[in-house]
Design goal:
Order of helices and strands of chain A: EEEEEEEEEEE
Strand content of chain B: over 45%
Radius of gyration of chain A: 13 Å
Strand content of chain A: over 45%
Number of strands of chain A: 11
Structural class of chain A: mainly beta
Largest interface: A-B, 21 and 23 residues
Number of strands of chain B: 11
Largest sheet of chain A: 6 strands, mixed
Distance between the termini of chain B: 36 Å
Largest sheet of chain B: 7 strands, mixed
Oligomer: heterodimer
């Protein structure tokens, strides 16, 4: 079992719709959860992070964390073509607060 | 701040040659990470340093890979001898957990390595 799992996609959503990206992790003691966006040929850039169960909103983005289900998601409201990218989920594990383990990413395509 | 600076941005080398990748972390950051990204395996952590000391090198694939951090503003990742399967994008990243950004790590632009 991979430590961090994501559906590789592509996930295709029409412009203006809500995109829902999902991630599961295997270490129940994982502490922090991050969503990075990576455009083709570019480096990953942080979108947001979440530590506590529940929702965290930042503009059009909402991160949702459910530690009981070992599940974290990213919702993108009013999706734009510029949101088309690969979205990487990352977690820090117990005892390694500065070491991020990444999923392989989900490719999102926002269509006109 | 200039961000994490990596060089070279692109490198094409022949199998068996030595490759050295360089990184300058963000000033004041006390953690430095080397990641490798391929289509098949995604983003893998190779090694990370804290205050110039290697903390975890369990991701280094084999003895052909080595990394050093002689001071707070410079790190190298060396591959000797290089093989075609080493072709990947190598990212350097840095972070400073004590800052308000928490464990956020910031990536450089990457070094695109092709071994032929």
């Amino acid at each position: 079992q991979k430590e961090v799992e994501q559906n590789s996609g592509p996930l295709s959503v029409p412009e203006g719709a809500i995109a829902s990206l999902n991630c599961t992790y295997s270490d129940r003691g994982s502490q922090s959860f991050f969503w990075y966006r990576q455009y083709s040929g570019k480096s990953p850039e942080l979108i947001m992070f979440i530590y506590s169960n529940g929702d965290k909103e930042d503009g059009r983005f909402t991160a949702q964390l459910n530690k009981a289900s070992q599940y974290v998601s990213l919702l993108i409201r009013d999706s734009q073509p510029s949101d088309s990218a690969t979205y990487l989920c990352a977690v820090t594990k117990t005892g390694t607060a500065s070491k991020l383990t990444f999923g392989t990413g989900t490719r999102l395509q926002v269509t006109l | 701040d200039a961000g994490v600076i990596q060089s070279p941005r692109h490198e094409v080398t022949e199998m068996g040659q030595e490759v050295t990748l360089r990184c300058k972390p963000i000033s004041g950051h006390d953690y430095l990470f080397w990641y490798r990204q391929t289509m098949m395996r995604g983003l893998e952590l190779l090694i990370y340093f804290n205050n110039n000391v290697p903390i975890d090198d369990s991701g280094m694939p084999e003895d052909r890979f080595s990394a050093k951090m002689p001071n707070a503003s410079f790190s190298t990742l060396k591959i000797q001898p290089s093989e075609p399967r080493d072709s990947a994008v190598y990212f350097c990243a840095s972070s400073s957990p004590g800052q308000s950004s928490g464990n956020t790590i910031y990536f450089g632009e990457g070094s695109w390595l092709t071994v032929v």
